[in-house]
Write a structure and sequence with these properties.
With 127 residues, the chain is an alpha/beta fold. It has a single domain, classed as Response regulator (Rossmann fold, 3-Layer(aba) Sandwich), CATH 3.40.50.2300. It is 43% helix and 19% strand. It has five helices and five strands; from the N terminus they run βαβαβαβαβα. The longest helix has 13 residues. The chain is globular and about 35 Å long.
């Protein structure tokens, strides 16, 4: 598989877990710890998918998504919101913001793999 996933995550533990799970599934990953860095990497590398933490230092994930959608280079890259503050209506809120999906943290590994695979158009390998 040659799918590239950009992980924008400021929590080192979460970043490591997400990266390790994806690499075990055969994805290539690049990482950013701020939204600003993630926006630059997205435009340079054009990943197949972006996993965007919502609570980030500097601009948050929702504002970062707005910038990604405003740039013709990154406008069509699927972006999944990752949040540790999952609330009842988050799926609607993130959908209205323009995210392609959202996952609560801590991640459920099976659900995480399935969501990433669906957004990248690949078959899930057994966990």
């Amino acid at each position: 598989m040659d799918k590239l996933v950009l992980i924008v995550e400021d929590n080192e533990r979460s970043l490591k877990l997400e990266r390790d799970v994806l690499r075990l599934q055969g994805y290539r990953t690049i990482e950013a710890q701020t939204a600003e860095e993630g926006i630059v990497l997205a435009a340079e590398q054009l990943p197949d998918l972006i996993l965007m933490d919502i609570r980030l230092p500097g601009i948050d994930g929702v504002a970062a998504l707005g910038r990604l959608r405003a740039d013709p280079l990154t406008a069509t890259i699927p972006v999944i919101a990752l949040t540790s503050s999952a609330m009842t209506h988050d799926d609607e809120r993130f959908g209205r913001a323009g995210f392609d999906g959202y996952l609560a943290k801590p991640i459920d590994v099976r659900q995480f793999i399935e969501e990433v695979a669906a957004r990248c158009g690949v078959t899930v390998r057994e966990v």
